[in-house]
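Retro notes, item 3 of 5
We never archived the inputs for the nicotinamide-adenine-dinucleotide complex last cycle. Fixing that now. Sequence and ligand:
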Amino acid sequence: MSESFDVVVIGGGPAGYPAAIRAAQNGLKAACVDEWRNTDGSHAFGGTCLNAGCIPSKALLESTELLHRARHEFAVHGIKTDAVSVDLAAMQKRRATIVKTMTGGILALFKASGVVAVQGHGRLLAGNQVEVTADDGSKRLLAAKDVVLASGSTPVRLASVPHDGKSIVDSWNALEFDAVPKRLGIIGAGVIGLELGSVWRRLGSEVTMLEALDQFLPMADGAVAKEAQRHFKKLGLDIRLGAKVARANVTGGAVDLVYSSASGEQTLQVDKLVVAVGRRPFTEGLFAPETGLALDERGCIRVDEHCRTGVAHIWAVGDVVRGPMLAHKGKEEGLMVADLIAGRYGEVNYKVIPSVIYTAPEIAWVGQTEEQVKAGGRPYKVGSFPFAASGRARAMEASAGFAKIVAAADDDEILGVHVIGPMAGELIAEAVLAMEYAASTEDLQRTIHAHPTLSEAIHEAALAADKRAIDSINR
Ligand code: FAD
Ligand code: NAD
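Structure as it came back at the time:
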């Protein structure tokens, strides 16, 4: 006998759980199936983001940024401290508590909105049936009018660098280290590499990052990447570009790496090695072949712009489908699908998805980089404003970086906004809203920004695009 639902969501991460809640808000009977288990064996909703990604990494980034400021900036403020020391166990306990509170919050949200939470492995069978296998092997059959697949992603592993969960680890393990590694190696200088590298560097590790590409942060605006590289070097991150890892072996608790770079074959010994070379969609055991679902060449479930799979009443959202692997992108897809299922309007504006790297300085952008606009051939103008000229940034002792706007020369349309500096991830929200409303730089120029705030940097960058900046020299 199967239990009947209007909507069954497989996956309770930031793409899946909002889809289930929105379905319930829309008056539909919804269930959310999730199999996540934490390292202590406990079940938790929230997926990668809450358990092993966005939230725990931001907790450690915040703690270690405070440590760094106490050690390196307090004196400038005239604050004297005795030597600042670290209680890593307390720091990790705080991280774990935040995660537990947030994941527990999802169950409370489910209860309040009437979503049925089902723990276990979900497998889509033909005919919109979802078979759920619990830990003890018992099975439960859920019948649904619509099924949303939100099974997320998992780290890419390198065959030549065998993961052992102790010395050679992934980002999840690296968030839960109980001691500061003396020498930390990271393969991949992408978002995870930079965030985790910052955490452990601030805690005292010697961090070496091996990045296969010759270019640093190719997805970011060139000027931002250049500025970021300078600051990461100052922090002490040893980022080696063009480094192709051939192999890694664990011997006597240390990891020996062999890699090649422009100067030939190199070796490196570290105490822990994090592999952070990207993530891949996770679809293992997710659907029976008779469902007719198809994967693309990257292993993503194929969907259209409305996250329809092509099989009637089966939808897929989040990291398991094309597009950037970001929690907020998955959430918007989940909400769109739950609204479409209910017969409401739903859309995701894929052109306006913000990206944030939570390092110090923080990096955030939306829209196109200057390089992309240039390659597109549309005449453009650029306005930049340095945080060194911002009174608020100076007061915060955080004057590194700048805000930059790229706009069309013909009709003044904002094409991209790039920020490196304090609270960049918060500042970018204004740019996202502006682009969502198809604003021009003139709209930003005529919008009053409170003084003294960091947001004035966006205002001044918009003014600078027309060489009308007041608080910096127009170039
Ligand atoms: P997931 O969060 O991966 O959730 C999928 C869920 O489905 C999991 O709980 C999984 O166990 C479950 N599942 C899978 N298959 C089944 C099945 N068959 N049956 C039952 N359950 C199943 N993104 C940001 O936007 N901002 C950040 O700051 C950020 N930081 C990150 C830091 C790290 C270290 C990492 C690793 C990632 C980070 N990300 C960040 C990326 C973000 O975590 C993902 O984009 C996001 O979690 C994707 O959401 P999702 O719901 O698609 O998948
Ligand atoms: P990434 O794609 O950001 O970076 C991976 C890096 O590894 C790239 O620079 C790539 O060139 C490099 N690389 C690939 N293969 C390599 C090899 N064999 N040797 C050396 N370098 C190699 O991926 P990630 O950092 O693993 O993060 C995974 C996903 O999680 C990303 O899609 C990201 O968007 C998401 N994430 C987001 C945030 C955030 O929003 N702040 C934080 C963490 C993760």
